[in-house]
Specification:
The complex is a heterodimer. By secondary structure, chain A is α+β, with helices and mostly antiparallel strands. Chain A has 13 helices and 18 strands. In chain B, the strands form two sheets. In chain B, strands 3-4-2-1-5-6-7 form a seven-stranded mixed β-sheet, sandwiched between helices. A seven-stranded mixed β-sheet of chain B has the order 9-8-11-10-12-13-14, with helices on both faces. Classes of the chains: A alpha+beta, B alpha/beta.
């Protein structure tokens, strides 16, 4: 789960990590006033759920409040396309106005999960402010890593080793040790899967400061962080994906015309693969989960039908713990409720499969039953090619 | 005849009084699994469907000699439940629970590394030795006793693969879903090692998916150590680049994770890779055919 830069910075600040003075604005007038409060010279930063904003024109050093207002108008009026957003970009709804800071040196610092060791890993580099993937590819020797023992936690001497390796000395080095320990504390207490400061800077005045920050929360930990849902900026998410998330469905919008409803992420991915192989283009990835209820299947169906690109639907359910008759009832209810006339192919396997098929074929809907994964995919592609019959 | 579980396995179900815990405990028992005990803290002393319930895994092990634990405890308590099972020194823990926070699993993995317990999962369908023992949520009837070992990161895609194997007349020795989470107990290599040693497993089918570098690591291990034919399928060939994990995660995996790279690495290491999820059974037959030449 993503949050904005300004929210990440607020969290860091609450753990004693210094951040630039800043204000969040929702209108260009607010941006102008914020710029005045910063003394005219300031940095205006578009807040979107993606990196690469600087290169995409979403961050600018401003010299006058009027200039800030003009730039804000431009940002609020368009979608920002960065290398992480995809071609449609993301709409700018919030802007962060920050004091302009004179920077002496820049670093990179992050903590994330290392899947190979199954431990948290601290990553640091003296090549701050740059695309860290580029640094890793071009000069891996400039990347420092430290694997954290879960039982001892991150120790001050380990943080000091990193700070010294970054070339810091004296009181700034000790400030950096404290900052690293606090960063680990944030990571643990807030259940972050990624917490990144890039760049971490030393100002010309001699202070350490987090100039940019990114935090990704572990969605599985929401049960102990009731504040997470309130932090989400829904303008940054696909409306259908928001709806799907409410029902705990994994949904991703794709470019094609065949809506997909599958149980299990692996099978859902394989279903997309088969559709493409059969000459079809999937309109979405949708995993209703292993233990989906009839309500969940019905909701999944409604979400697929809200997508106007969808011209046909392929349901692929391998019932392990799901009963096929329950799935069939969910489909019939959902399709009936919205008066769906689109062609549907259902491939079901597992328990109560015959009863499920009987219900579907007697439902009066435009449904065919696939006998296997390949047969089902071929049928829906064929039905669409024949104009939906 | 199998690895990890067989007719002699004695299973304790942690979280047996929960809805899905009880449902699957009974499904497993119906399949023929020796479900000997349940654990739900605070409910020790009762019997549920004839199964004695204990407050702790230690008690259950002491009184019933359970040697396998199947865990259905909900996410907030699941990591603790796994650690409790490990603490008893039980041979095998199978955690079905989906949605355990990463921060909870990091210490579990560390405890596991210093123990004799093997962990399957979490977020997995479990393990089945067809015709003998089912410890998990998979539909038993699609399986058939035989000589193919199956390993998978997925749940329902494993059922698809197993069905294709069964339809092709290829029975299974043991099928294991190792789980789809970033932190899991046994990995591909751990299971491949056991299949390699098992005299009754003749070949292995492996199901992977995009993300991480586990398939590549398994491929290298197969090239160096595997004495038996292996076929595989990787899901997500057409998956869009989608939402990335963020910079730091991408550094660590060093560009690994794409389906095409995994397929190429597996092929280079002598694995027959099915190019379509509709031809998994055929890929296994091809690998077996090649081995006979």
């Amino acid at each position: 789960m993503n949050i904005h830069e300004y929210q990440a910075k607020e969290i860091l600040s609450s753990y004693g990590i210094p951040i630039p003075r800043g204000l969040v604005a929702l209108t260009s007038d607010q941006v102008e006033r914020a710029a005045k409060m910063m003394g005219g010279r300031c940095v205006v930063k578009a807040q979107i759920y993606a990196g690469g904003r600087g290169k995409a024109g979403g961050v600018r050093l401003i010299h006058h409040p009027e200039e800030a207002q003009e730039y804000a108008k431009e940002l609020f009026g368009r979608s920002l396309v960065t290398r992480q957003t995809g071609p449609q970009g993301l709409k700018v709804r919030r802007i962060l106005v920050e004091e302009a800071v004179e920077i002496a040196r820049e670093f990179y610092l992050s903590i994330t999960l290392d899947r190979e060791s199954s431990r948290y890993i601290l990553i640091a580099s003296a090549e701050g402010g740059m695309d860290i993937e580029e640094v890793a590819a071009k000069s891996p020797e400039k990347i420092l890593t430290l694997t954290v023992d879960p039982f001892t936690g991150l120790r001050p001497y380990q943080a000091r080793k990193i700070a010294l390796a970054l070339g810091l000395t004296g009181t700034i080095c000790e400030d950096c040790v404290e900052l690293i320990l606090n960063l680990y504390k944030v990571c643990q207490e807030k259940d972050c899967t990624l917490i990144e400061i890039n760049p971490l800077v030393v100002t010309k005045a001699g202070w350490l400061m987090a100039m940019d920050a990114k935090i990704t929360f572990d969605e599985n930990a929401v049960f102990r962080h009731r504040e997470y849902p309130d932090m989400v900026d829904y303008s940054q998410l696909d409306p259908l994906e928001i709806n799907a998330a409410k029902y705990d469905l994994a949904y991703i919008k794709l470019a094609g015309t065949i809506g997909c409803l599958v149980n299990g992420a692996g099978l859902a991915m394989a279903t997309l693969d088969v559709l493409k192989e059969s000459g079809g283009e999937p309109a979405n990835f949708l995993d209703v989960g292993g233990g989906a209820t009839r309500e969940k299947v019905a909701e999944a169906f409604r979400i697929i039908l809200q997508d106007s690109d969808v011209k046909g639907i392929f349901v692929n359910i391998f019932g392990g713990i799901m009963r096929c008759d329950v799935i069939a009832q969910g489909i019939i209810e959902a399709a009936g409720a919205v008066g769906c006339t689109l062609p549907i192919v259902v491939r079901m396997d597992g328990s109560q499969v015959e009863e499920g098929k009987r219900l579907l074929l007697q439902s009066g809907l435009n449904i065919q039953v696939g006998t296997s994964l390949g047969d089902g995919a071929a049928k829906i592609v064929q039905m669409l090619a024949q104009g939906g019959r | 005849m199998s690895i990890l579980v067989d007719k002699n396995s004695r299973v304790v179900v942690q979280g047996i009084t929960g809805r899905s815990g009880l449902f699957h405990a009974l499904q497993c028992r119906e399949y023929g699994t020796g479900v000997v005990a349940g654990v739900t803290p605070g409910k020790g002393g009762i019997h549920i469907e004839g199964i004695p319930v204990f407050n702790t895994v230690a008690e259950a092990v002491k009184y019933t000699e359970a040697n396998v634990s199947m865990i259905f405890v909900p996410p907030p308590g699941a990591a603790d439940a796994i650690m409790e099972a490990i603490d008893t020194g039980i041979a095998l823990a199978v955690c079905i629970t989906e949605g355990i926070p990463i921060r909870d699993m990091v210490p579990v993995k560390a405890v596991l590394q210093g123990s004799t317990t093997r962990l399957i999962g979490p977020n997995c369908p479990g393990i089945i030795t067809p015709g003998a023992c089912k410890v998990g949520i998979m539909p038993g009837h699609i399986h058939m006793p035989g000589k193919i070992g199956v390993i998978s990161r997925s749940g329902t895609l494993t059922y698809e693969a197993v069905k294709q194997l069964t339809d092709a007349g290829l029975g299974q020795s043991t099928c294991i879903g190792i789980g789809g989470d970033p932190i899991i107990g046994m990995n591909f290599i751990d299971v491949l090692t056991l299949f390699n040693q098992d005299p009754d497993t003749e070949a292995v089918f492996m199901i992977g998916e995009i993300g991480g570098g586990a398939e590549e690591a398994a491929a290298e291990w197969i090239r160096a150590n595997m004495k038996k034919p292996v076929a595989a399928f990787i899901a997500g060939v057409t998956a869009p680049p989608g939402k990335r994990m963020g910079h730091a995660g991408a550094i660590i995996t060093g560009g690994k994770g794409k389906a095409a790279d995994k397929i190429r690495t597996l092929q280079e290491c002598g694995v027959v890779v099915s190019t379509s999820p509709t031809r998994m059974g055929e890929a296994m037959q091809e690998a077996l055919g090649k081995a006979q030449l």
